[in-house]
Design goal:
heterodimer, A: alpha/beta, six-stranded mixed sheet, 17 helices, 27 strands, globular, B: alpha/beta, Arginase, Chain A, 2 domains, seven-stranded mixed sheet, 12 helices, 17 strands, about 30% helix
């Protein structure tokens, strides 16, 4: 049996799943100051239902890291940059008071083009020691292609100040983009200790309950990761809530179709796309609080409209504000809300009809409209804003840059077949969205705990991008920072692909391949390196992955869920 | 905040041949550097996806033999289409300037296209400029060709156009392909002095090129007051370029763009794919976006690395002064050198296509009209590498043509297709009507692009 939990900002959802059916689901308010309590409260009733039958794994999504970053409740970190030629390092805005910039440079092929200077390193270490900082991120440009400089600086720190923790750029991500690597390294170091503490607390709470099921966490890319590995890079768990809702829809919506995921909350509506049965990934890493990271995540969009949004009339025109004053008026709240409009229009049966009409009357006064017209105006506006966002998401996807001819030629116009609503208010607004867009709409069974279902059923994801350089006789792996000599004779793209697939399979087995799909080739390409009219070597770029997906045992029963 | 539009289309799946300088790898390290710098994340930079140019966009500029389809691959359509995306973005004021980092290049492609010359089939800048003039009504255009090779294709396309100022500085044609671009090439009788060529000695440095910029190019632009400045942005004046012999640096190129302030820049040549291009493109984008580029330098560069000899400086000063004088005297000089007598001015030209080994002979007649820049009648014969031959004739009516010239020219086209003896095709490029026709003699079929 599987357990899935989603600790959201407002509610904590949890489900117990056996093969293809939901055995038990629960939902109750989150204790925002005590995530552990929220988790354990959700877990206990499920364990009771399980009644001693074995739990294969527990997966949770968490807002812990997102909240830490949003409230700036993170540890102070110093920064050492080795930028080499390029943008003026003085123009970066990492907002780190203690930054030092070192000489030394590596180029795009991993060759040293300027050496480090020992004196500068010594000064830098001395300055950090004086500042009293305990953590230092060391990041060099193109360090993913040659980690030597980062390593040398880290070794110097280890030798002269062994107490200081370091994280190196190539360890957090080896994708291209130095500023994002800096931010990702900083956030990793700033959140790691607290995340580890949290993990420790969960482990001891679980062992008090006698639970030894492996504990997984849901990442922003919809994949699960063993908790003890997430400790290495907790920043990958940002946006695990939105990822959980997309994975939930993937499990609950018709398989293989193109759907919009619609999650209507109190003050926001979250949107995501599933294209022909595959969640759409953001082409670049996630942005959190205006900080651009390397964290792979789904392409999601948040619209500032929800069931509890405040409504105002300004100069005779209706406005939906991005804030709430409390619950809906029909539920005893202080002010009219979109939920009251839905109640008045008969789209939902939640709340007191009398109060809903009263609130619309009050709002309608300023507009000079009767309550029914007022309610439909509120709903029209809500639908208009949401459909505009859906359209712009599809357009943005079509406008993604392409760097190869085939990529550009295969671009096509795709429009959604379904809008799948999950969460409290979504079903009420669905019929109107269906009329406005011409899409099928559905609010599948268990939609109110879709996030927990998504967490429970999500597979392990992993992506490995191999970059082989036959002239320099080495390869590196973008995601892990691994840098090695070429494995024996590697002379063709086919060899490179075979090696890459075998490598990711091996890692997958270590991680529990039962939870992963078959590896797939994302892309592979070859460049001849020609110097002086002669081919002197080849570059092979091969990307393989375990894609995000839902466990097979659930899909086998998919027909009945749809 | 200034916004710079960027179309980056490295065409990682297109090459002339596997070891040709114009191959898949050309912008690979540039991609690495731009991505590693996080250029696309800068709030000042907006990246656009390219689109495919249409056959009509190409027929607006070129007479393609045997037809448009045979001369362009998808890569060409995307490179040209990338420039059109930026043109639209500029006109919609989404951006303040734009750089199309696209390949394959285009500035050696002339009006008639029989094949590939100088790595080019179709002229990306001209396709972009004529699209802008046709759809947005821009009139006065300045093109500054900063490639090390003479932009002979662009020069050919605008030779008779009085509203386009074409300035090319390049390594002296006696020492480099395509062997043209001398100070005496100044434009046709209706556009005399609107073509300016500045051949520079091999080994010319930042100092020399910036002298030309400050003392010739910028003053001419100030006087001409164009609606649009286009940088035909080759990067092969760089000191490490394997196909040329100049000594221009990354800082020199960036400062050039800062001073020139092109509205749109389109990548041309530049084949130092590891030692120069990654740094050059980073610096140029930063300069166009108004950002600090002072830290973008080649690994082996030190200030003072290259010094201009005094004889080179003397030569450049004299040449710049001479060309400025020619520019100011262009009207009287034009009358002297190309007397406007008779109905037509005639010219002959031989063109060699190095990539495809084709020899083209062209004969053209320009209508000398008092009210407009006239129209042109062209006959072009090409001998292909296996000895076969094709002859075509074409009628070109410019946007500015007066009603009489338009009618006369359309009459010429009708006459030609009635008795097209020995011709493969007859073309009509009717700019006022935005109509482009090709009459195929063998099938008597008329294509309307």
């Amino acid at each position: 049996m599987l357990i899935g939990m989603d600790v959201g900002g407002t509610f904590t959802d949890a489900v117990l799943i056996d093969k293809d059916s939901v055995i038990k689901k629960i939902k109750f308010p989150t204790y925002t100051e005590n995530l552990l309590k929220s988790l354990m409260n959700a877990l206990e009733p499920l364990l009771e239902t399980a009644a001693g039958r074995p739990i294969e794994r527990i997966v949770t999504s968490t807002t812990l890291i997102t909240n830490m970053i949003a409230t700036n409740n993170i540890e102070p970190v110093g920064l050492v940059l080795i930028p080499g030629p390029g943008r003026n390092p003085g123009t970066y805005h990492f907002d780190i008071p203690h930054t030092c910039v070192l000489s030394g440079a590596i180029d795009f092929r991993g060759r040293e083009i300027a050496p480090l200077k020992d004196g500068e390193i010594a000064d830098c270490i001395e300055n950090v020691r004086k500042s009293g900082l305990q953590r230092v991120a060391i990041v060099g440009k193109f360090s993913q292609r040659n980690r030597a400089h980062e390593q040398t600086v880290a070794d110097c720190f280890a030798k002269s100040s062994p107490g200081i923790q370091t994280v190196l750029g190539h360890q957090v991500s080896s994708q291209l983009n130095f500023p994002r690597r800096v931010v990702t390294a900083l956030l990793t170091l700033a959140t790691r200790d607290r995340f580890r503490d949290f993990y420790g607390q969960i482990l001891s709470a679980l062992s008090q309950h006698g639970i030894d099921a492996p504990l997984y966490i849901l990442k922003a890319d919809g994949g699960t990761l063993p908790f003890e590995q997430a400790v290495r890079m907790p920043v990958e768990t940002i946006f695990s809530g939105p990822a959980a809702s997309t994975m939930g829809v993937l499990a609950l919506a018709p398989a293989g179709q193109t759907s919009v995921v619609l999650d209507v909350g109190g003050t926001t509506t979250d949107l995501a796309l599933i294209l022909s049965g595959r969640p759409l990934m953001a082409s670049r890493g996630a942005r959190i609080e205006e900080r651009l990271t390397h964290v792979r995540s789904f392409a999601t969009k948040s619209v500032a409209i929800g069931g509890d949004s405040m409504l105002r009339v300004d100069n005779g025109s209706l406005q939906i504000l991005p804030r709430r004053a409390g619950p809906a008026y029909c539920l005893g709240g202080p002010e009219p809300t979109p939920t009251d409009a839905m109640r008045q229009a008969g789209l939902t049966t939640i709340g007191d009809m009398q109060r809903a009409v009263e609130s619309m009357k009050q709002l309608g006064r300023a507009l000079g409209l009767p309550p029914e017209r007022t309610a439909s105006l509120v709903l029209e506006q809500m639908v208009r804003q949401i459909t505009a966002e859906i359209r712009s998401m599809f357009l943005a996807w079509e406008d993604e840059p392409a760097y190869r001819i085939w990529e550009l030629l295969q671009k096509q116009k795709v429009r959604p077949q379904n809008i799948v609503g999950i969460g409290g208010s979504a079903p009420a607004i669905l019929p109107l969205l269906g009329q406005a867009t011409g899409c099928q709409t559905l609010a599948p069974e268990h939609h109110e705990v879709a996030n927990a279902i998504g967490a429970a059923l999500a597979r392990v994801t992993m992506r490995r991008t191999f970059h082989f350089d036959t002239e320099r006789n080495f390869y590196f792996v973008e995601e892990t920072g691994q840098q090695e000599q070429l494995p024996g004779q590697l002379s063709s793209l086919v060899d490179a692909e075979r090696f890459s697939v075998a490598s990711i399979k091996e890692v997958g087995e270590q991680l529990g391949v039962a939870f992963a799909a078959e590896p797939e080739l994302v892309y592979s390409e070859m460049f001849n390196m020609v110097r002086g009219w002669r081919t002197i070597g080849r570059l092979f770029d091969v990307c393989v992955q375990f894609p995000p997906g839902i466990q097979d045992h659930w899909n086998k029963g998919a027909a009945q869920h749809a | 905040m200034r916004k710079t539009g960027l179309v980056f289309f490295p065409a990682f799946d297109w090459a002339i041949e596997p070891t040709h300088p114009e191959r898949e790898e050309r912008l690979l390290y540039t991609k690495d550097q731009l991505f590693e710098e996080g250029i696309m994340d800068l709030p000042e930079v907006i990246e656009y996806a390219p689109r495919l140019a249409t056959e009509k966009d190409i027929a607006r500029v070129h007479f393609c033999v045997p037809d448009v389809k045979s001369q362009v691959t998808e890569a060409h359509l995307i490179a040209a289409g990338g420039t059109l995306v930026l043109a639209d973005a500029l006109m919609k004021r989404e951006i303040d300037n734009g750089f199309a980092l696209v390949r394959p290049p285009g500035h050696h492609a002339m009006r008639v296209v029989h094949g590939n010359r100088g790595f080019c089939n179709i002229n990306n800048e001209a396709i972009m400029i004529e699209y802008l003039r046709q759809h947005y009504g821009l009139k006065r255009i300045a093109i500054v060709d900063t490639d090390v090779h003479h932009g002979d294709g662009t020069q050919d396309i605008y030779w008779h156009d009085p509203d386009v100022l074409f300035i090319s500085f390049h390594q002296d044609g006696r020492t480099l392909y395509p062997g043209t671009g001398f100070p005496s090439e100044l434009g046709g009788p209706n556009a005399f002095g609107m073509t300016i060529n500045v051949p520079l000695e091999p080994g010319t440095t930042d100092e020399g090129i910036h002298y030309v910029l400050d003392n010739l190019v910028l003053p001419l632009l100030d006087e001409f007051k164009p609606d649009l400045i286009v940088n035909s942005a080759g990067q092969d004046n760089h000191y490490t370029d394997p196909l040329a012999n100049m000594r221009f640096t990354t800082q020199g190129y960036a400062r050039l763009n800062e001073k020139l302030k092109p509205d749109l820049a389109v990548l041309e040549g530049g084949y130092s794919i590891e030692s120069a291009l990654p740094y050059l493109n980073t610096a140029i984008i930063l300069a166009m976006a108004g950002l600090d580029y002072s830290h973008v330098t080649e690994p082996d560069y030190q200030p003072g690395k290259f010094v201009q000899t005094s004889s080179q400086i003397e030569y450049i000063k004299d040449l710049a002064a001479y060309l400025k004088e020619v520019w100011h005297q262009r009207e009287s000089l034009g009358v002297q050198r190309m007397p406007r007598t008779g109905e037509f001015y005639e010219d002959k030209k031989d063109i060699y296509y190095d990539t495809d080994n084709i020899r083209e002979s062209r004969w053209e007649r320009v209508r000398l009209c008092q009210r407009c820049p006239g129209y042109q009648l062209l006959t072009s014969s090409a001998i292909y590498s296996f000895g076969n031959k094709r002859t075509v004739s074409a009628v070109a009516i410019p946007l500015q043509a007066c009603d009489t010239c338009q009618e006369e020219a359309r009459g010429h086209y009708r006459e030609q297709i009635e008795s097209p003896g020995g011709l493969h095709s007859v073309y009509l490029q009717d700019r006022p009507r935005d109509e482009y026709r090709q009459f195929l003699v063998s099938t008597s079929e008329e294509v309307n692009y």
